[in-house]
Amino acid sequence: MHQENNDQVMENVAQENLKKLDALIKRGKQIIKLDFINFQPICQFSNIKAGQVFDVNGNEVIMIENDESKIIWSCNSLPNVGYPMHFHECDEVIEMIAGNGTLYIDRGSNDPQEIILKEGQKIKIGKFISHSFFNKENIYIHYKVTHIK
Predict the structure, then answer these.
(1) Which pLDDT tens digit goes with each residue over 120-135?
(2) Which label site among 45, 96, 111, 127 has the fewest CB atoms less than 10 Å from its CB?
(3) What are the extents of the domains in the chain?
(4) CA atoms within 13 A on the CB side of 88
(5) Cα-Cα-Cα-Cα dihedral of 106, 35, 135, 112, to 10°?
(6) Nearest-angstrom CA–CA distance, 4 and 23
(7) Which CATH number fits domain 2-148: 2.60.120.10, 3.40.50.720, 3.30.70.1150, 3.20.20.70?
C-alpha cells in the first residue's frame, strides 16, 4: 500500500512538471522551477529551445543544445547543493568544467559507489542506472551534462 502511495505521489509530481513545461512553451517564461522526483524523463524536454534556464533543486541548469540525438545542459551548483538519487530513460554524460563533483551510482546494492569527478574529467552513466550528484566543495562548481536520446 505504501509503495502505491509513493508511486502516486511521484506520478503527480511528474504531471505537475509536465504542466509547468507546457505553460513554459506557451508563455516563453525565462526561468522555471521543477520539482525533483526519482524518475526524470528527458523526453519531456523535447519542445524546449536552447537558452532556457531551469532551477532544479537549487541548481542552475541551462539548456544549450536540443536536437534529435541529444540534449546538452550547462549546470552550476552552489556548495552543498545537488540532485538526489534518480535515473533517466537515456544515457547521461557528466563533464566537470570547474571544481569537483561527487557522483553516487547505485546498481541495486543499497550501497552506492562514490566517485569524485575532478575538473576536466567526464563519466558516462547508462540509462536506468540510479545516480545522484552533489557539490560537496566550498566553492561554486560548473559542469556539462549531455543526455543521449
Answers:
(1) 999 999 988 889 999 9
(2) 111
(3) 2-148
(4) 21
(5) -10
(6) 29
(7) 2.60.120.10
Q: Which amino acid is at 85?
A: M
CA distance 10 to 92: 21
Q: Please state whether beta strands 31-34 and 53-56 pair in parallel, antiparallel, or not at all (unpaired).
A: parallel
| Sheet of 31-34, strands arranged across | 31-34, 53-56, 59-66, 70-77, 141-148, 91-98, 122-125
Instruction: Fill in the DSSP letter of residue 87.
Output: B
Q: How far apart are CA 116 and CA 94, in angstroms?
A: 12
Q: Is 118 left (phi over 0), alpha (psi -120 to 50) or beta?
A: beta
pLDDT tens readout for residues 34-87: 555 666 677 677 778 899 898 888 899 999 999 989 999 999 999 999 998 888
Read off the C-alpha cell for 40: 526524470
Q: How many CB atoms lie within 10 A of CB 137?
A: 15
Q: Return the H-helix or E-strand segment holding 84.
A: strand 82-86
